[in-house]
């Protein structure tokens, strides 16, 4: 079954998203800045309020995806605190000044996540060579997925690019299945997001082969990022997605 991840920015969002059929939450603050780390109080309240997994954004500022030592120290403390309150996972991403994935940062911070699920966020879309970047991310057993629109364009305009990324994960997934204890359900996933629409989601999934999709403003009133979740729109979306075999 295709999974639906929905952005939540408060407890009310989280409760409504769960009620209307979301399979997982991405909990953030500063939605108009692409998402920053919410307060520990907010994280605790949301984790306590819902039964579905809560993945928390770990992003200290929106200036860039290049982080210095003080940023990394901040992210380390955030990850440790997020783990303590029982979140299911974190959403993280970092690039070097040269525009590559910051593997040194990942090597430093991922051990702090313990058993939490890890998503690499849309910093990935700024890479010049996304297939190579995907191979790098797939070498980390803790990272379960990458959130991507296939580049800097909205996802519906990058169907071929996303299809290529899905193909890479499936080819590598067969290797994971034969060489580790992973199962088909938890091999590396492409989580498609940015610009997806309720009306076009079925065709998009069929064309790309993705099994996870990410929605934010498209399931809010008037498609406004700062508006509450629209239960009618979200229920309609969840029904469509969960009917796909």
Short description:
Belongs to the CutC family. With 245 residues, the chain is an alpha/beta fold.
Protein architecture, described:
It is found in: Cytoplasm. InterPro entries: CutC-like, CutC-like_dom_sf. By secondary structure, this protein is α/β, with parallel strands linked by helices. It has a single domain (3-242), classed as TIM Barrel (Alpha-Beta Barrel). The chain has 8 helices and 8 strands; from the N terminus they run E-H-E-H-E-H-E-H-E-H-E-H-E-H-E-H. The chain has an 8-stranded parallel β-barrel with strand order 1-2-3-4-5-6-7-8, surrounded by 6 helices. Helix 2 links the parallel strand 2 and strand 3. The protein is globular, with a radius of gyration of 17 Å. The N and C termini lie close together (6 Å).
Q: Which characteristics define this entry?
A:
CutC-like, PF03932 family protein CutC, cytoplasm, eight-stranded parallel barrel, TIM Barrel, alpha/beta, CutC-like_dom_sf, 245 residues, 38% helix
């Amino acid at each position: 079954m295709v999974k639906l991840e929905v952005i939540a920015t408060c407890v009310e969002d989280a409760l409504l998203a769960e009620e209307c059929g979301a399979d997982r939450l991405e909990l953030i603050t500063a939605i108009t800045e692409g998402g920053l780390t919410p307060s520990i109080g907010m994280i605790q309240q949301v984790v306590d309020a819902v039964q579905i997994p809560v993945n928390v954004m770990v992003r200290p500022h929106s200036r860039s995806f290049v982080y210095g030592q003080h940023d990394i120290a901040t992210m380390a403390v955030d990850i440790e605190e997020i783990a303590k309150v029982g979140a299911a996972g974190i959403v993280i991403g970092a690039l070097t000044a040269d525009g590559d994935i910051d593997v040194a940062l990942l090597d430093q911070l991922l051990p702090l996540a313990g058993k939490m699920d890890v998503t690499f966020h849309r910093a990935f879309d700024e890479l010049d060579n996304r297939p190579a970047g995907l191979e790098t991310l797939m070498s980390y057993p803790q990272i379960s997925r990458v959130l991507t629109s296939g580049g800097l364009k909205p996802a519906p305009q990058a169907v071929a690019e996303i299809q290529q990324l899905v193909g890479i994960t499936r080819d590598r997934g067969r290797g994971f299945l034969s060489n580790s204890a992973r199962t088909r359900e938890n091999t590396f996933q492409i989580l498609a997001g940015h610009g997806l629409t309720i009306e076009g989601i079925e065709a998009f999934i069929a064309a790309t082969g993705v099994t996870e999709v990410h929605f934010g403003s498209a399931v809010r009133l008037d498609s406004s990022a700062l508006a509450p979740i629209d239960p009618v729109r979200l229920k309609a979306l969840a029904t469509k997605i969960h009917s796909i075999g």
